[in-house]
Amino acid sequence: MNPLSLLLLPALAFGSTAPTPSRYTTLLIPMDRSAEAPSLKLELDMDETLASDPLLTVKKPEELFGLPVDATAAEALKHSDIGYAESKAAFDDGDYDDAERKLHATLKEYAKAAAAMTDCGHYCDAIAMYAAVLHRRGEVDESRLNLLSLLSLDPTYELSPKIFAKDFITLKATVATSVNAALRENAMVKSHPAGARVFLDGKFEGYTPMTLPQVEVGQHLVRVEHPGFTRWGQIVDIRPEPQELDADLEPTPAWQTYDKLLDQVAAEVPREEDDTTISSLGKTLGVDRAIIGTLRTLRGVDQTELLVGLFEIKDGKRLAFRKVVFQGNELGQLKEEVGHVVHELVNAAGNGRRAKASRSSDPLDHENGMDTWSDDDHSRGSGQSKKKQSGDPLNSVDGMDDW
Fold this sequence. Notes:
The chain is α+β, with helices and mostly antiparallel strands. The chain contains 15 helices and 13 strands.
């Protein structure tokens, strides 16, 4: 295949997409705890592939189920910002005793607001001022500890000579090159449910469960997010010893409603009949078509099985179906694979023709022996293909396994 053809593949893959319906989404149901971890990542990868077609509008998981800020944390953040403004006014006026009292209270309030914070922001400014008033009062060791927290939260934080004393700025430079500032440690982050996004000091790091490697000793803002659950956050004091954070996420009402239907939806995915539960669910979520699948870890082997269909929401009709077994647990290699699956589902639904099972030079063809087909092909299949389907273990799927 020539280079020009390779460049055109993404466009050709969606060449048969009809202008309507246009609102799509992806829902993957984990059938065991091991499959729970990669489910959100794979959903987002599939949504990204759908979004590459300009004719489609994709509703992301947070649009479907919400991703609210914790109300208590949001209120604490408001109080913190007010406290910061009052503290800064006292600091700028040279009333350092009053500034110290207000900053001490403000820093405690910011600790309660972690779930509503996206970055260090005024929290870092408050730490800098608090360290400065401690240094001015002669408490150098306490000032050093606060500067260490400041630098771990934001290593590039600059102290303005117009605001801070020269000897305090010198102390900050000394702390930045100290042995303590060079210390690093790993931190494990888990969540319930697994597969949530992890942010460290405002930067996306990966999905739970995961290890944050070689984190600077000192304070850090850790935030955990999963669509359908309230955001979780904590200001963590990393010490020179392994640590573990466990985020127990609170579901939204929309997710609780969806969760009650999971058994029924999972059972309908491999069936050819029109599915009322999927139709009702899709209408509630406000989409026209949905890619819905189940994700299962195969026991005894390092493989994950994906059963996935493309459904017309208005009548619950399954337009296309795909069964894939992924090798390995590294998600990096799966993004391209699930992208191919999405292309094949959309194409099969659009042209109603069975994808060739034989190996070809087309890079979109899989070499793992899994077939792609539309539901019309099931009804028109030969006797040989029917015999093959009768032994398919999918015929016995009746819902979610017990966890």
